[in-house]
Fold:
Amino acid sequence: MSDFTSSFWPIFITVISLGGILGCALLLWLTGKTKVTISGGDNTSGHVWDETLREMNNPLPRWWVWMFVLTIIFALFYLAAYPGLGSYAGKLGWSEVSQYDQEVATANKALEPLYARFIAMKTEDLASDKEARAIGERLFMNNCSQCHGSDARGSRGFPNLTDHDWLYGGSPEKILETITNGRIGVMPPMGAAIGTQEDVKNVANYVLGLSGSSHDAARAGLGKEKFTVCAACHGPDGKGNQDIGSANLTDNIWLIGAGEAAIIKQINEGKTLQMPAWKDKFTPAQLKVLAAYVWGLSNK
Amino acid sequence: MNEAPAAKVAKKATLTQDVVISLYKAQDKVYPRSVSGFFTKWRWVIIWLTQVFFYGMPWVQWGHRQALLFDLEAKRFYIFNLVLYPQDLIYLTAILIISALSLFLFTAIAGRLWCGYACPQTVYTEIFLWIERKIEGDRAARMKLDSAAMSGNKLFRNASKQFVWIIFALWTGFTFVGYFTPIRELSQSVLSLSLGPWETFWICFYGFATYGNAGFMREQVCKYMCPYARFQSAMFDDDTLIVTYDEARGEPRGGRSRKVEVNSKELGSCIDCNLCVQVCPTGIDIRKGLQYECIGCGACADVCDTVMDKMGYERGLVKYSTQNAINNNWTHKQMLQRIMRPRVLIYAAILGLLVVGLLASLWFRTPFRVDVVRDRGVMARLTDDGKLENVYRLQIMNGTETTQHYKLGAAGLKGLEIEAEDRDEEKDAIFNKSVMVKPAESRWLIVDLKIPDGTVEAGSHKIQFEIQSMETKETVIENSVFLVPRQ
Structure:
């Protein structure tokens, strides 16, 4: 249970907690009666402030003392029931994590009837179901929009989900798979494999040419031969491969940056892009609703 | 300023002046005697007014709903024709500041008016005392009953008192919850015994607080728990009207035969009947001067006036007066003139300004509200058609109880285009290109702003969203920024 590596700290905490409670009880008892010398019999401490304010030596109401006693009793029961004393887990076995899990389970159970309808539906139908879409939108806003943007159109390094360009496939099943298990897309640094920096620049121009972007035709011609290194993943025609998530280089969508300089940088340095897996956070029904929402973004 | 403690004098202490005292004092039960008179009458008037408001207000309907309803679950606060959102917290702040300043003002003028006449603690104590008096009798009868051995009569009276108290307290708790959940539905749930767990808890909790505070804690709350009782002296000055005993006139006090003419003997006007102590709800003796326990209810002034009348003396031995008036023998008029002193005028001026400000801001309030949240994940991006794009989320909060359509616009940069997609709603000819928001609901809308790339220098640029309600023609302008990245 304890996050501390040293066994000293649990003991320290236990001693401080119990010692503090004991100290309070002792103080309460010892100060119950006191011997005072009444000066002049007026029951004041003798201090005078602001001309006339005198400090009285008045007793505490007894009901207030009982409240102190109650807090002490409460503290002892609390420390017995809950993890408050070092590494002692408490009689109730409560922990923050278990409470969270329990609350999530309760909430999911409460939502079950709502999602029951969705589970039976086809993804294509879910995407046009108003209720499912509203839920999907909220799930997306709270969990996906941080990277893909509120309008789902992405930004550099984070794919646009509203177009028909998919790294790993845009079928409902593939989208669900991507969300459920996440994806890690790796492009290794290829500069050395291609050859000199001149060669890299030539390949970059060839790549630009694939999508019909403005490029140096002479360099592209020289780069074509070296592109075979790239073709292993991106395919001989540069159209990419959705099974391994390699990008299509023939369209005008540049996830990591358009233009010669960006492509050269990408070839030299490579890139790893990661989409986290969401299967631990969402129930299967939620994943399905979310996948349908994402699918619906490009299939209206 | 206070009475000496009930010092438990030890056996040997008499000679040495050394005494052992208990620092924990048992509560001396106060048995306030019933009283009638000017201040008591006013006290009851205010109690009736505040309580008729408190118990009655939840039952008042406004259109199709409760006039005053704080719907915590939906986070909507209905106050007559207003629908407030949590974002309208500023109004609550203003009301709290106004309340605090009113407290300052009233305290500067006439002491603890709040405590004596309006505070729930003293008001409910007074109501519970009234019930107690009806069932167990006045002070003497109650003291006798308390000290008597248990009997059928005592049991019956105690039980019926507790019963009425608990019913009243539960009704109070029920009313309180009725401000947060519609009281008409709540009353049906009570009658059909189908209250939710939280409603049950809060009715019982508030009921228990009322029962405990007004039935048992009473003056203990004022004396030991209430912070206001302790800092009131900071708001008093020598011209503050307070309940005072006219010491010069009253002393030396003493009992006497009714035939004795006042001033003919060496005795003052105070006949030492002790009634002022007996009527006091906090159990103090006003003749010892201003004390922090005094809640300013004026019961002692009322009872003393009746005694003075019986004796044939002039009224006002205990009265509302000021320190200066007592010291300088001012007339009533002289004393009241001092109310218009700088302290009071300044409090009143600030208070007046705030009240006018609050009313004006409520009057000119646009019945909807917009929050703009710029997407942080996406700084800016180039679209396929060569435009630079920023993404925003707009939350439009409809503060009316009718469906509204809003038109969106953006300004502040050359060539700024706005693109907002309202995927959900059916369109008709009139409201095409508008956003529909249902009554008292809010909705998030995703908005893209674009400019032609390269037309604006890199950096952050101020822009404004203009949102116009097509029904009310009112416009809200919200500021935001448009980011242009360095290439």
Remarks:
- The two ends of chain B are 77 Å apart (CA to CA).
- Chain B touches chain A through 39 residues (CB under 8 Å).
- The first strand of chain B starts at residue 18 and ends at 22.
